[in-house]
Protein 1
Amino acid sequence: SSPGTDNRWRHVRRLLERAGPLGGPEFEPDPELFSAIRSDLVQILVVGAGGLGCEMLKDLALSGFVNLHLIDMDTIDLSNLNRQFLFRPKDIGRPKAVVAAEFVERRVSGCRVTPHFGKLEDKPLEFYKQFMCIVCGLDSVQARRRLNQIVCSLVQFDESDQPIPTSVIPLIDGGTQGFQGHCRVVRAHATPCLECTADLYSSTQQGFPLCTLAHTPRLPEHCIEFARIMQWPQEWPFGEEVMKTE
Ligand SMILES: [Zn+2]
């Protein structure tokens, strides 16, 4: 390849071809890893094309992956545009998956993104088998649980009841709430799955997105939260301590 191409992927190669503190005990640095990423055979599914999904799709494309799939059931709304940066005003009303795929294909040469406009359950189990990894940026706990169930049910076992490694699809689950975020990796039957740790997620979603409170409060609860989170600290900077001592 030309020197220009080498330079483009310099940073990714550095991660893949050297050992490092973030690599983990099973990671073996290898120059071949980069050509694996650039191969059509490494097919990755991104679930969700919202705030997190847009970022992840961009990151994967810029990391050199060339065969991405994207699934999302939503269409673009005006209120998405401040953070879902792959969308423009002219895209309002169109499916997020389709528009995001078009944008990334246009911007990152050599990267192919196949969009799927619809729900997770619209796809047969067979559909999910083709991916080497599933990366998820969803805001719904229910949809996460469904995805978790999908990857767990795809696992096959050998005669001694050990999971067959090639049937285990790693699920990388990301989520945000306000300024907080989390990311975890689930490898079915090797690490706890989402159901094992369901207590970590609140069953009823508590709190509201800060952008909703600031820009489009539309419920009495939003106004109360706005007063509690933003106005109270301004009016009563030491309010809680005063209340305790009184
Ligand atoms: Zn589990």
Protein 2
Amino acid sequence: MGRVLAVVSQKGGVGKTTTSVNLAAAFARRGLKTVIIDVDPQGAVRYGIGLRRGHPTYGFADYLNGVRNLREILLPTALPWLRAILAGSVSDATDHTFYQQLIAETSVLRDLLTTARERCDIVVVDTPPGLGPIVHRVLEASQHVIVPLQCEPLALQTTPQILRGIQEIVEKNRDLTLDGILLTMFEPSHPSSQRVADYVREHLPRNMVFDIVIPRTEAALEAFAAGQPVVLRTPADAAAQAYVNLATLLAERFR
Ligand SMILES: Nc1ncnc2c1ncn2[C@@H]1O[C@H](COP(=O)(O)OP(=O)(O)OP(=O)(O)O)[C@@H](O)[C@H]1O
Ligand SMILES: [Mg+2]
């Protein structure tokens, strides 16, 4: 049985999708059978995972509402061990109410995560910001969770909320482990970035924050714009190396 690893955060734009696509690619590069699932209606995985040209755009939302079957939504990527399930048609819609309702009121998401786990070593789930009903459902069926925290002062205000939220879910899902908080977009030359990193390390339990830090790099930004994980596009980049190291650490932990 594989593991479901959810990437969640209270705040938006902190590097969840970047973390999801790069960890998924790095796991697959290690030979682990990996699937990345995008449950965020924004559907950003589609732009970052490195799909083949002319790929279909349907995905999880279309499976959820019964229009597509699992075979149809499971898309190949440039890596033989990596498949992707995109958000699907919900990412073109402005109203996500029905999508959220289906997730909250049916067991389709839970069942999909269980099936994916049975067939893969690692299931990486990219989520929308916040701890809404979609993220709750994901965490109820996950074994691992990572919380990216952007190294900027505002990040600190929202961290206690997400930790409390995860704690509440862990009480219901005893299989779930908070693997760690991941400092992202770290800029060593910015004193404010350093201050946030120091503050987080000082105020949170030591084992709750990964030693590995993801730097903000030009290559990471460009890779996303070019539609590819930076670990594949620019392997020598510092952010790419940090993601590969994190994947190695997690893969060893999950063994
Ligand atoms: N290490 C990095 N270096 C440079 N840019 C980065 C890095 N990580 C993320 N970014 C950029 O920051 C922006 C936000 O990242 P991303 O989309 O991964 O965040 P998110 O948490 O998934 O956002 P949302 O909450 O909207 O889903 C993107 O433009 C991304 O390319
Ligand atoms: Mg995202």
